[in-house]
Amino acid sequence: MVEERKFNSIIRMDTLLGKTKDELTQLAVGLGLPRFAGKQLAEWIYTKRATAFSQMTNLSATARSLLAGNYAIGRKEPIAEAISADGTKKYLFEVQNEDKKWYIESVYIPDNDRATLCVSTQAGCKMGCRFCMTGTLGFQTQLTATDILNQIFSIPDADKLTNIVFMGEGEPGDNTDNVTAAVNALTSNWGCAWSPRRITISSVGFLPGLKRLIEDTECHIAISLHNPFHQEREALMPVEKIYPLSDVIELLHQYDWQHQRRLSFEYICFEGQNDSLRHANALRRLLSGLSCRVNLIKYHTAPADNIAAEKQVRLKSSSTSQMEWMRDYLSNNGIITTIRRSRGEDILAACGMLVNTYEGKTS
After folding, report:
1. Looking at the structure, do residues 47 and 166 belong to the same domain, yes or no?
2. Are 17 and 73 in contact (CB under 8 A)?
3. Quick check: is 105 catalytic?
4. pTM to 2 decimals?
């Protein structure tokens, strides 16, 4: 059974969430406040998770008034929540770019002692992968570091989170400034002080951004692969034409994936399209010499009554038995391979299904 709740939203001014301690110090000094106010602001925003300047009790009343008159913290509650039968929760957020409003979704996935949030980095996506419901939206807007972090800070279960995956709407490598700023706030000592090993960033292989994400963060990296053959992959993923998978693999070979940091490949299994022995052998050869793992994923099609169904390529998911065969074959040939359990399909929250659905409509 799907349940929905609505929340009140807050209009934002110029925001502090996402700024570094140095940036907070500069703006504090710019308001005539002492330099140490920057450290205090960082602690209130990232450690104590303040939602209002009035909560910052170690700042003077004058300081709080100045800050409130010139800035907003940047926290904004989700406007809707959908709950899956399996416990997955999907949140709809409103974001604002200049004078226009957009909508994005985040997915909270509880699993025993783990709680993962799947975070969006763009509203919509430029990459146009034919099988992805999000891709049918096209690109709408870049999310700011504030927008990205707000998804993490403002869900009701924020204090339960153990892991973050940048695998929601958008291509993180196409928004590197804001993604790296968000990761910096999450992992720096002045911020949330998370280990970067609790964060995974996904990419379709958008090379300029992928290179920067690898070099400017210490997070795990996941590559959306889906087919080891150039022409077949290009038919499903237009990025292959500009940044071929062979170039992506060449780049990945330049980095160390054997010590703590993990490299994985996401592989949606399409019946009769990429789940044969021919594909498994090509995948094995392609990944030879890389310390990595492969995650096999069930394909999720858009419901017939969803607008995405008109644009999404109509493929079928491989059977469970075929996915198990592929898992075992790759694992027996030296590539650690698992099947990712599908979560939240009944609320359009599973892999590739985010289309900003609110009250039965796509925003």
Report:
1. no
2. yes
3. yes
4. 0.93
